[in-house]
Amino acid sequence: MKICLDAGHYGKYNQSPCNGAYYESDMVWKLHLMLKKRLEEYGVTVITTRPNQETNRELYDRGAASAGCGLFLSLHSNAVGSGRNDSIDYPAAYCAINHSADDIATKLAACVEAVMQTKQEGRIEHIKGKNGDYYGVVRGATAVGTPGLILEHSFHTNARSTAWLMDDGNLERMAQAEADVIALHYGLTKQQRPAGWYEDDKGWWYQHEDGTYPKGCWEWLREATGGTEGWYLFDDAGYMLTGAQIAPDGRMYYLCETPGIHEGQCMVTNDQGALRIAEYDFDRRRYKL
Ligand SMILES: [Zn+2]
Predict the structure, then answer these.
(1) Which domain-ending residue is among 158, 186, 214?
(2) Which of 45, 102, 162, 191 could potentially form a cystine with 18 if both were Cys, beta carbons 3.0 to 4.6 Å apart?
(3) What is the CA(188)–ligand 1 centre distance, in A?
(4) CA–centroid distance, residue 161 to ligand 1 (Å)
(5) Max Cα distance, the chain (Å)
(6) Which residues, other chains included, contact 174 with Cβ-Cβ below 8 Å and sequence gap of 6+?
(7) Does residue 64 lie within any of the structural domains?
(8) Per-residue pLDDT for the chain (289 aa), expressed as one digit of tens each?
(9) Tally of domains in the chain
(10) Does 41 share its domain with 173?
């Protein structure tokens, strides 16, 4: 499935009267990138309407950029009047007047209500203009056959909602919840990572096809880029070990510490005592010394 995400405004736009540090354009830029990442975990191809937050682009063109997508979603926070108003906080989805986005919009409005714990209920609305849909982005999406909606994440004229939307942890939870709702609606499931080596800030680990990974043991594996093979030792958390390490057999091994194709591979010493990567003798099933 392909989805088009639209950060509702560019630059620094729609400052909150409750907190001068809040701009709707900042919030939706962050949220749409978080949502993109979460949707991609479900195997969705996500396109966005702006290369960066500074780029202005016509409303209609942003909607029409969704050609070939199954959904166009424009992210916003709402405003009422010109000052602070703490009594209004309902999440709203403004949907295409052809009703093509009503089902997913109803679920997303309810999702925002549940995650933000707004006092007022989420709702969907349809607003007709002179040439079809009142909202340009929705009109553009409809023109290319994409079900389109604008999703308002409560009101930045509401102090509580504004404070909530300024917390990045809250936005991460919102993005996850919206991705889950979209995935459930369209019957998408998370894709298993392919077997192979993976790295994070703690180190390397190897994931098998069934999602399991070696931990607290040796495993014979093929290295990712150079294609060389060797025994690798993993700690109890599953991270590849390097340097001098006591293996489960109680003996000490020296595992290459140099980042690159030999990292983690067994090292032996030559006749002068210099370390080198051990070559494996497949016939005798042991390292050549
Ligand atoms: Zn907006």
Answers:
(1) 186
(2) 162
(3) 28
(4) 15
(5) 88
(6) 31, 34, 112, 115, 116, 153
(7) yes
(8) 999 999 999 999 999 999 999 999 999 999 999 999 999 989 999 999 999 999 999 999 999 999 999 999 999 999 999 899 999 999 999 999 999 999 999 999 999 999 999 999 999 999 999 999 999 999 999 999 999 999 999 999 999 999 999 999 999 999 999 999 999 999 998 877 788 999 888 899 999 887 789 999 999 998 877 778 889 999 999 999 999 999 999 999 999 999 888 999 999 988 888 999 888 888 888 888 7
(9) 2
(10) yes
